[in-house]
Write a structure and sequence with these properties.
Layout: H1 3-9, H2 12-21, E1 30-32, E2 38-40, H3 42-51, H4 60-69, H5 85-91, H6 95-104, H7 118-124, H8 128-134, H9 151-160, H10 170-179, H11 186-190, H12 192-195, H13 198-204
Antiparallel strand pairs: 1-2
Helix pairs in contact: 1-3, 2-4, 3-4, 3-5, 4-6, 5-6, 5-7, 7-8, 7-9, 9-10, 10-13
Length: 209
């Protein structure tokens, strides 16, 4: 069995053994997907398999722990750009993985392919526990480079149009971001969906431009 298979089936015992035999495997990219064109860091691959429903939810943390103990690069970015394992966890609904990576020392500020941070993704998917860890020290008004939107805009979009992997707690994330000083754009307050939801409207009206 190899590292890829051990992650896919959630076999942390075998993963520990494989990494003990060759710790460098903790940072060897895993090829997968159509024609194996994708090459992903093992820490990111754990989140990928959760998102694909290949890995049973609840088995991810022992795998992450094995990789961390073997020296996996918590802030790996292919060619120095793109998603880190933390951004991957946030974008794929792997909230527990993201929290463990932060505990292990992963940096929250790196930006992904669109100039977004892990906080943008946590906001979009309604991952309030992860957002609560990312908000302190972050710029709540930092805009990504593709959509030109801050995390609050991503949270509202995720609430209006729930994405795959949605955790469904965008309202809680909005409360966190507004309390941290996020600017509320007038068009968000004018949205029919927002105006039709008293709880969301109240959360946004705590601070307006």
């Amino acid at each position: 069995m190899d590292v890829k298979t051990a992650i896919e089936i959630g076999d942390a015992t075998t993963l520990h053994r494989l990494l003990a035999e060759a710790p460098a495997r903790a940072n060897e990219l895993i090829r997968w997907g159509k024609d194996c064109r994708s090459a992903t860091h093992p820490l990111h691959y754990v989140s990928d398999m959760l998102f694909e429903n290949t890995l049973q939810r609840g088995k991810e943390l022992p795998l992450v722990e094995a990789l961390i103990q073997a020296g996996a690069d918590l802030d790996f970015q292919r060619d120095g750009k793109g998603e880190t394992p933390l951004i991957g966890a946030a974008s794929l609904g792997a909230e527990e993985v993201g929290l463990r990576l932060l505990d292990a020392g992963a940096r929250p500020e790196p930006r992904g392919l669109f100039g977004e941070t892990a906080l943008h993704w946590a906001a979009l998917l309604g991952e309030d526990r992860l957002a609560a860890r990312l908000v302190p020290g972050a710029d709540p008004n930092l805009r990504d480079e593709k959509y030109k939107s801050p995390p609050l805009g991503w949270a509202i979009h995720g609430w209006c149009d729930p994405p795959a992997g949605n955790r469904g707690r965008q309202h809680e994330v909005v409360v966190l971001l507004v309390a941290a000083g996020a600017t509320v754009e007038p068009e968000w307050l004018e949205s029919e969906k927002v105006r039709g939801n008293p709880a969301m409207l109240a959360a946004l009206q705590r601070r307006t431009v």
